[in-house]
Design brief:
single chain, 170 residues, mainly beta, SH3 type barrels, seven-stranded mixed β-sheet, 2 helices, 6% helix, 43% strand, elongated, PRC-brl_dom
Length: 170
């Protein structure tokens, strides 16, 4: 398991010709926050800035030092990637609160924890407002989250699951 921000700065290398296509500047999750859906590689343009990205389907290996992609032509404007309108930037989750189903504030998301295949295992926590297993682990399993919230609304977690589920590789 690795925190998503630890991938930032890793090179994207084409397996076809070995070309270095740039570096990872962020990750996108699918709408259910279960998988990495894409890779943010930066922006282009001075006036009409466009986000550039690689679809997860073009990533062959999520390596320790670099990610290998299927070719030199996999970086596209974000809006050209199918279903990209449903992508959730990991950066949007930093600082999002998690509360119990009863509305008690539990913690704040610091990062997303993923495995080597891009599955979301859980969330690393910055602040924890409750004593117990969450405060000790500083992490909450994705399966304990019952509502993903939004920019304006906190996530909701089942407290008993949050305290009992450990983050394991899928």
């Amino acid at each position: 398991m690795i925190a998503s921000r630890e991938h930032n700065g890793k090179s994207l290398i084409s397996i076809i010709d070995g070309k270095d296509l740039g570096e990872i500047k962020g990750l996108y999750l699918d709408l259910d926050m279960r998988h990495v859906a894409g890779v943010f590689t930066g922006t282009e343009g001075l006036i009409n800035r466009k986000a550039l990205a690689v679809s997860r389907s073009d990533v062959n290996v999520m390596g320790i030092d670099a990610w290998l992609v299927s070719g030199s032509d996999v970086i596209h404007p974000l809006e050209e990637i199918p279903e990209s309108s449903l992508f959730i930037p990991v950066s949007d989750l930093h600082g999002r609160e998690i509360q119990t189903e009863g509305g008690t504030k539990l913690c704040v998301v610091d990062d997303v924890l993923i495995d080597n295949d891009g599955h979301v295992l859980g969330f690393a926590l910055g602040k924890v407002f409750a004593q117990g297993p969450l405060a000790e682990r500083k992490a909450i399993a994705r399966d304990a989250i019952t509502d993903l919230g939004s920019r304006e609304k906190p996530m909701t977690a089942n407290l008993s699951q949050a305290e009992s589920l450990s983050i394991q590789t899928i």
